[in-house]
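::Encoded backbone::
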Amino acid sequence: MILLKIGGSVLTDKSRPTTMRKDNIKMVARQIAAAKTSHLILVHGAGSFGHPQVVKYLSKGLSASGLWRTHLAVCSLNTAFVDELQSQGAATLPIHPLNTMTLDAGRIAHFDTSALNLMLDNKISPVLHGDVVMDRSNGFNVLSSDQIVAFLAQKMRPKKIGVGSDVEGIIYANKKLKYLDPDQFEKYRHEIQGSRSTDVTGGMLHKVVELVEIAKSGIESIIFDATCDGNVTRFLTSNDNIGTVISAEKK
């Protein structure tokens, strides 16, 4: 099993609300379809189809209409991505967190994975995404795609985990780190920046925090540049280090 997340910064222009990067969507979908990876779980970020909407519609708190408008926006991106994957020949179906998950104080408390498992059994790749989700403690909360990756990593124990972003990995002192372990993270933490655009889930720092936590459980992952044509293929079909590997194992 392989778990691949494609960031919202890859699929959307995060500086412009509800703006897709259609060429990137096609490029990523083409590589995924061509790899013909069995037992593949896909997750994608919401990008400019989620973060600006949360600020606009939900900044004052729980609102059914605000939840609907935000969920509708992220679903439109998910639909476009799944549609392109299907048109390229990849057997994919969406799973929407609002309908399948509940949170407690912002963390996933329950996720009914039965449909996800049945999809995998039938050689269909589920496609999940960042979303707004009902929360037992707070009424609702924003669920990042990075937390979905961390949850599925612990539950499904995939062979490989990749996080495709719009940068080549974790940059420190103007150089890409090839490896990062939890001890090193504390040293580099203050240098890891969030997103330059509106990002209600914390951008790169939040991503790395989630991956460092699963690394402590012995689960390795890699952050790489998914805007570079060929990198998604390399992640799916090879063991090349194309970004920054996050692992508890000292390199």
Observations:
- Residues 194-202 have pLDDT under 50 and may be disordered.
- The first helix runs from residue 8 to 11.
- The chain has one domain: 2-246.
- The domain at 2-246 is CATH 3.40.1160.10 (Carbamate kinase).
